Amino acid sequence: MNYELNENSTLYFSYARANREPNRTDYEGGNVKPEKLNDFELGWRFNSEKFQLSSNIYYMGYKDQLILTGRLDDVGAPIRSNTDKSYRLGLEVDATIKLSEKILLRPNFTLSSNKNVDLAVEGQNYGTTDIAYSPSVIVGNIIVYSPTKSLHISLLQKFVGEQYMNNIELREAKLADYFVNDFNVSYEIKPKSIFKSITITGLVNNILDKKYVSNGAMWDIYPSYYPQAGINFLAGLTLKF
């Protein structure tokens, strides 16, 4: 349902019912069940010449959600299992702010609570716990500077809050938060023949050379980690005919 408050603002509400069957790998974790979801969303969109905003409050109530356990099978694929009752409740906001003809900001963030309710693992009840690999805070921002129509210089920033690699909030399974910055440059040339446009791009990832871990896995109480690359770069060329 959509309701137009005025020419700039729109409120909306949605409800969705979804079902998902387990995949082949899921059966390695035991006799799994299909996942059932009721999804409720309430949002507001605002649009003007210099400012656009999209915000959304959501509640996702699950029955038998297929959650990551933190364990891997013998070929390295993640193993999932059912949790009887769980939910994801959160707020998502993203915006585009035109500070001037040359400078653009694109911030976004998600605040969420992702919980197993009365989680039982191997006969033991752990109560309400965080769902694995579900940080409660994710924040991003892009600053774009365009001195000309052809040249775009961007700084991409991302913060991810702490999270667990299993569902029982084991201290050894906690991944620390991290904040990374990437730098991107693109320049478009419009030749008069052969190509419609030639775009040259350069991307420098992790410009502050941050040492961080974004993922990992658990073997019983022992963690393993996927450390990410330090500063690195990519260059590209796009030709349009």
Structural notes for this entry:
There is one protein chain. The chain is mainly beta and about 240 residues long. It is about 0% helix and about 65% strand. Strands 1, 2, 3, 4, 5, 6, 7, 8, 9, 10, 13, 14 and 17 form a 13-stranded antiparallel sheet that branches. A two-stranded antiparallel sheet has the order 11-12. A hairpin with a 2-residue loop joins strand 15 and strand 16. The protein is globular and about 70 Å long.
State the helix count: 0
- Strand runs, count: 17
pLDDT averaged residue by residue:
95
Q: Distance between the terminal alpha carbons, to the nearest Å?
A: 42 Å
Oligomer: single chain
Catalogue the unreliable spans: none
Estimate the helix proportion, in percent. under 10%
Element-level helix/strand string: EEEEEEEEEEEEEEEEE
What coarse outline follows from CA principal-axis ratios? Answer: globular
Rounded Rg: 22 Å
Main sheet overview? 13 strands, antiparallel
| Proportion of strand residues | over 45%
What would you call the structural class? mainly beta
Short note summarizing the structure:
The protein is mostly beta strands.
Features:
two-stranded antiparallel ribbon; 0% helix; 13-stranded antiparallel beta sheet; mainly beta; 241 residues; single chain
Please outline the helices and strands:
Blueprint: E1 2-4, E2 9-20, E3 35-47, E4 51-72, E5 78-98, E6 103-105, E7 108-121, E8 124-130, E9 137-145, E10 151-160, E11 163-164, E12 174-175, E13 178-189, E14 197-205, E15 213-219, E16 222-227, E17 232-240
Antiparallel strand pairs: 1-2, 2-3, 3-4, 4-5, 5-6, 5-7, 6-9, 7-8, 7-9, 9-10, 10-13, 11-12, 13-14, 14-17, 15-16
